[in-house]
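The instructor's notes for this session suggest beginning with a concrete chain rather than abstract definitions. Hand out the sequence below and ask the class to guess, before any prediction is shown, which regions might be ordered.
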Amino acid sequence: MTFVQNLTCLLVTAGLAVACRSDKPATDHATADSAAPATPAAAPTAPPLVHVKAADYKFDMPASVPAGAVSFHLMNEGKELHQAMVVRLEDGKTVKDLAEAMKTEGPPPSWVKWVGGPNGIAPTATATSTLLLTPGHYAVMCLIPGTDGVSHMAKGMVQGFEVAASSSPAPLPVATDTVHLKDYGFESTRPLSAGSHTILVVNDGPQPHELVVLKLSPGKKVKDFADWATTGGMKGPPPAMPIGGAGVMDAGASSIINADLTAGDYGYICFVPDAKDGKLHLAHGMLSQFTVR
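After discussion, reveal the predicted structure:
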């Protein structure tokens, strides 16, 4: 595949009873003031949920979303693998400019800022990724190629949208786990267990990276999927199934992904081309395997 690809605290201030001593005769009554308890701080606003329907080969999603944390819920209604890669378009560039730029060899232009988004999923599957967005022009696209080697974006699978200023932008959700992306590997704060996880994905590397999450078929390894997706031309049954992850993110960027894991073998892999030699990061060892119990 070519470029395939957040604390809630409750603060309570207790009332302090202050007894006021009087200098008057004892027949007078002493007075006491009691400060009323402070109102607990309101819980942060939850990120708005934006449904992104992916078909072969188009997206159906709102034309505008509010700034702040936004949860993109990808629903694959097509017959092929799809993703919803989110990019910010700067310098007044448009979706048409983006489409033209992605046709050329080498790294994309500097006005394309990689933000993340739900990574690849199988037909009928869903995935959710929460991104922190600032006002501006954006696009969502699918860069996964078909068996013919042509990317879905080249077949029209790209759509622009606007991020509008918000008076009360939502913060990123609290994460249960963290995965760091580095040149060239993945580093988790703890082993993942079966169940639901809210994972903060942070790109600590000096160049763009992605996190593709794989559920491996019995007896298969991440390398098998890498071969199937590249030199194997995506022919025949896949040795693993992509179950989402974080789309390509620029250095220093972060996003949240939701993962419901069952027992079994899993893997992480990055298909982003290297900024120095053009080789996919998986060729530099950016793939790992782990077991969920």
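Then share the key points. The chain has two domains: 47-171, 174-293. Residues 32 and 194 are 56 Å apart (CA to CA).
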